């Protein structure tokens, strides 16, 4: 018996799996568990199909991990978490708006569709810049102190 070596899943394959998981999402959730399932399905879809969402998740995890490593105050970790969470939430909204616009205009160009997509992407960009500013303000001072103390010893 020969074993078949399967290739890693492509992004198209992952997108197909994510879409299959959402087949009944048009229905009203019958209970809280189903509501959470639909929400998780949206997050999973974005993670599997949106490169920028994966980048934002990685940077968010890095910032919070560095915050914990540097023993920042709870309020500082919270501020980093809030700003990072805002970026992720806006990236999800951007994906939703892009999908809805694509559904509406199909394969045609429309100036209002461009405006909607560009403004949603701009909202993500602004939130990402603010998150970087907050992370730099809170993480750089203790990180520099740690680096300087390590080089002096």
What does this structure look like?
- By secondary structure, the chain is mainly alpha-helical.
- It has a domain at 50-152: Helix Hairpins (Orthogonal Bundle).
- Helices cover 80% and strands 0% of the residues.
- It has helices at residues 11-21, 32-49, 51-69, 74-105, 111-152.
- α1 runs antiparallel to α2 (32-49), α3 packs antiparallel against α4 and α4 (74-105) runs antiparallel to α5.
- The longest helix is centred in the C-terminal third of the chain and has 42 residues, at 111-152.
- The N and C termini lie far apart (61 Å).
Offer a concise description of the structure:
Its main location: membrane. The chain is mostly helical and 153 residues long.
**Radius of gyration from the alpha-carbon trace, in angstroms:** 20 Å
Question: Which residue ranges are poorly predicted, with pLDDT under 50 across at least 5 consecutive positions?
Answer: none
CATH architecture of the domain at 50-152: Orthogonal Bundle
- The residue fraction in helices comes out at over 70%
